[in-house]
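Action item from last week, closing it out:
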Amino acid sequence: MVSLNPFFAKRRARKWWPYIIVLVLVIIGYYKGMFYQISDSSASNTYEEQTRATMKEVFSLQRQVKLLKSVLKRYSIPEKEYSDVLLPVIYIITPTFARPHQKAELTRLKNVFLHVPALHWIVVEDAPQKSHMVSDFLELSGLTFTHLHQLTPDDWKLKDNDPIWRKPRGVLQRNAGLKWLRRKFLYDGNPRGVVYFADDDNTYSTELFIEMRDTRTVSVWPVGLVGGVMVERPLVSSADHKDTAPRVTGWLTGWKPNRPFAIDMAGFAINLSLLLKKNNIEFNLNSPIGYLESNLLEKLVTLDQLEPKAELCTKVYVWHTRTEKPNMKDEERLRKEGKATNNGIEV
């Protein structure tokens, strides 16, 4: 019996070891399968999340396209105005400065500019550095933009009691915008585009930008509520014969109509290529009162080279409105008491 125990023990060992190996393999296979199932599930979940995010963005874009189409239809903007990828870009230079209603002014402009295709907004702050408010505003605007800053020296700033015509405003800021354009197109000999100076306290209609898009030299139009009159406008002659285009012959204004170009800053746009070909042309801080526009334009064109727009200057698409300066009397009182109403909120 003793001699048989090793034999039977050996038989039993030989009998069970394959089953042990098979069991180990089954267990390994089970857990391996579970691992791949978890991995596949994780990958599937990630894919589904990405798909949902993509579809959400697509639906959002579809809603925006629908909204834009309705706006375009409402304002009767022709399809060529927004479908042509080669549309000349309108470069709008806007000087701005810090004040209680600054954001409100910029918001009014933004809401119009969003309806204008191929537009590049150049916003120039009169400040030693860019402000967070304007930076954040432009980032969220949905517009193509360039944000610059250029400080006006104290000697050239209006005092609190000065009339607005005492010193020219926004001069250095507009020049900063022109310098940016010259740097951008330094190696482009003939860029397509239009330059327009849009102050942030004016009111603009979308039709204005349709009018200026094809400017070849300098285009002009009426400006409402400016210079102490209902409208200032170029005087346009009728065509002498079918081969002669109507042309500007003078100005209907309430103040100094004998100026070379008796026109408001909002009343003209300049062909980009023409402007860049005239080296170093910019606004002059030393221009006499009311001659800021004239001193610039007389370096670019003559009277008979102007292009009358807005149905031969019979329509008004821009108004020289100004937001009423808000009364901050109570705000100043509360601020002295440490109760400023705009603590923690941007207005």
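Closing note: The longest helix spans residues 5-74.
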